Task: structure prediction
Amino acid sequence: MRFVSRMRLGFVAAVVVGAGAPWLWAQPGAGGPPRKITIGLVAKSQSNPVFQAAYAGARDAARELGPKFGVEVAIDWQTPPDEDAQKQAEAIEQLARAGAQGIAVSCSDANTVTPAIDKAVELGSLVMCFDSDAPRSKRMCYYGTDDEVCGRKVMAELAQAMDRKGTIAILAGNQTAPNLQKRVAAVKDELKKHPQMTLLPDGVFYHAETPEQSVEAVNAAQSTHPQIAGWAMVGGWPLFTKNALRWRPGEVKVVAVDALPAQLSYLESGHVHALYAQDCYGWGFKSVEILLGKIVKNQPPHNERMIDDLTKVTQANAAEFRRKWDQWLK
Result:
């Protein structure tokens, strides 16, 4: 993907707008340097393109919003190479102890990261969640998808594509991720509205959230259970790589979450019926904007839970949506 090559994917990476180290404090003053603000970004994994998009959004927000707020912004990318909630927890506390004024987190496991979030708040950092929430923590707010709505939309669209009959399977990602658990539950609940459709017994397939692991999960299941006529993918993981779906276009119906550039090719080829785009780029951009507003101007978020509306992407508007990515990531 175009933006991957633009990113430094080391476990510790900082993007600084301007010169100077992020933890050298300076208050704004007449003729003096701007105050330096460090915002930590702790996503689920570096290997997942949706979080690479979030990182791009955070970097752009630092560049664009820093001057507007009269500060110099550094994004400290402390995301594990692969999903690991314990490493996330360690990164959150390390960021707080290093003096990060703000931290944005997508939780791999809310139970594991909640104590670290609470500790970071005690140490003086503002913490918010994006994509995957920790609602019982002391985090300030959440920005992202309404996961119940997401699951219902995916299943309703799949039912329409399958003429409301046939056997389906669910591709579900990380079994401990709270956002994915809610989506799976919503898919199952929506499925009850369609009496001629059934979920394959043991038909929820969990896997590490990498393209390779998800491709293996889908194709192994399809080969073993050829009666699967449709897939409800509550994440877009296998579609982040080429030649993932080993069947003829339209032979098996697929509705998936996210609409990154690599995924759009599956719409265009007819392998995927529809995608529901989350605001992956906005997870980073909006998180930085919200945190800066509170840190610099003491502006609280409008709501504790801020929901980004899903965008339905089909063959009809795939080219238009691809142009949006070109604008976001130019």
Observations:
- The chain is about 40% helix and 20% strand.
- The two ends are 12 Å apart (CA to CA).
- Residues 1-31 have pLDDT under 50 and may be disordered.
- The first strand starts at residue 13 and ends at 16.
